Structures are given as structure tokens and as C-alpha cells.
Amino acid sequence: MTRLSVNINKIATIRNARGGNMPNLLKVAEDIQKFGAQGITIHPRPDERHIKYQDAYDLKSIVKVEYNIEGNPMDNFTKMVLEIKPTQVTLVPDAIDAITSNAGWDTVKHKAYLKEVISEFKRNGIRTSIFVNPDLKMIEGASKTGTDRIELYTEEFAEQYSLGNKAAIKPYTQCAILANELGLGINAGHDLSLENIEYFKQNIPHLLEVSIGHALICESLYDGLEKVIASYLKKLS
Ligand SMILES: CC(=O)[C@@H](O)[C@H](O)COP(=O)(O)O
Ligand SMILES: NCC(=O)COP(=O)(O)O
């Protein structure tokens, strides 16, 4: 089974548009869990344009399933994660002003740095995952950082799949096979959707978890969160 972790950044985006508390992020997180999602993901960014750091703290007592916090391990972020102690931290090498995540780690170049931050999180009982492009060298590099898992960055797959290029799955499959051989757990995310998730799941062995936000919230505008989450769960079972 592959677990579904729902990224709720976009709920906070809508809330922040008016400065009030509608929609109520905590209530939505509770409902998403009630609808069967096995995880809640947030990706607070330094400008707090969607998830605010305070949200990350407030969610701690609300999230009863896996709590996954994503971000670049800069000082404020690291301090917050160490205080909250979520189930998992996913390290993403975002630039401060990135519109959204747009690259994985260079796990060879940043091996020493990643090793250091990963060991600090793990010492505190937090599972680690690092965001990587589907590149065998980066998977090999990841295995030398001590991380528990990798998150395959799926934007390129999603883009190519939408254009009809199903062969774009190949590097992802190869990376999943290698990651599993090297003892790494496999997560994936970015631009996954109801359209592409089934094909992705069928072609990625040992896929433990997907985190999905943007498309899932857009799909829910038409069909509602409960129905959309049920559709993902069916495709991931
Ligand atoms: C790592 C990843 O792919 C997602 O967390 C994505 O970056 C969502 O972030 P935004 O909602 O800010 O686009
Ligand atoms: N880690 C990926 C994530 O949390 C959601 O990405 P997206 O579905 O919003 O592109």
C-alpha cells in the first residue's frame, strides 16, 4: 500500500487571501484525516505566504496520522522542526523566493551538510526524507547521507505524462529500484494528480508515500475533498 499524505498549503493560501480564518486550516486537517488520508504535509516557506510557522505548531496536536513537514533546513526551519518533532521532515533545497519547489538536492556536492542536518533530526527521533531528481547518482549520494527516505521530485514525470510521453516514468522506476537496493524508503511528490497517480504507482516499486496538494485541492473544487481523497486512496491501494 502507498500512503497518501495531503499537502494543505493551498488551504492556507485561500485563508490568507482575506486575513481571517476561513477556511479553518485545523478543521480541514481534521476532516482530511477523517476522510482517510494517512498523512498531512505542510511546506512552510520563509515568507509564510501560505503555511505560517504558528500553523505548524498548532497542527501538532491535530494531526493524528503521519505529520510531514517539508522545507529548506535553514536556522528558523530547523529550530521549528526540532521543537515540533513531526513524524517526518522532508528536506527541500528551495531558494528563499522560489514560487514552488523546482529542484532536488545535489546529494554529492552537499553530502557533508546533509549528513550533519540529517543526523540532528534523527537524533531527535524524526524520520528524514530528502527531495531528489530522478538521477541514479543523486540516489547513490542520498544513501551516503544517512537519510531514511528519499522523495522523488515528480514534476518532470507529470509534465511528460500530460503530453502523452509515458516513457518519462523510466528514470523514476530505475531510481526506485536502486533506492530500495540501497535500503532507502521511497516517497514521491510534486504535481501528482488523479490523472497520473495510478500509472505512477503501478510503475514505482516499493512506493511508501505520496504527498499531494495542488492538484488534489483543485480537483476538490469540483468533487469535494471526501470524494477526491477516496479516489486517491482507491488508486493507491
Ligand atoms: C516539495 C514539493 O514538491 C512540495 O512541497 C511543493 O513544493 C509544494 O509547495 P508549494 O505549495 O509552496 O508550491
Ligand atoms: N512533496 C510534494 C507535496 O507536498 C505536494 O506537491 P504538489 O502536489 O502541491 O505539487
Automatic annotation (TrEMBL):
**InterPro entries named in the record:** Aldolase_TIM, PyrdxlP_synth_PdxJ, Pyridoxine-5'_phos_synth
Q: Which SUPFAM superfamilies match?
A: Pyridoxine 5'-phosphate synthase
Its EC number is 2.6.99.2
Asked if the Swiss-Prot or TrEMBL record annotates the protein with the keyword Transferase, the reply is yes
Top enzyme class: transferase
What do the Gene Ontology cellular component annotations say?
cytosol
Q: Where is the site Transition state stabilizer?
A: 151
Main location per UniProt? cytoplasm
User: What family is this?
Assistant: Belongs to the PNP synthase family.
Checking HAMAP family in the record gives: PdxJ (MF_00279)
Relate the assembly described in the record.
Homooctamer; tetramer of dimers.
List, alphabetically, the NCBIfam families matched. pdxJ, PRK05265.1-4
Recorded protein name is Pyridoxine 5'-phosphate synthase
Q: What organism is the protein native to?
A: Aequorivita ciconiae
Give the gene symbol.
Answer: pdxJ
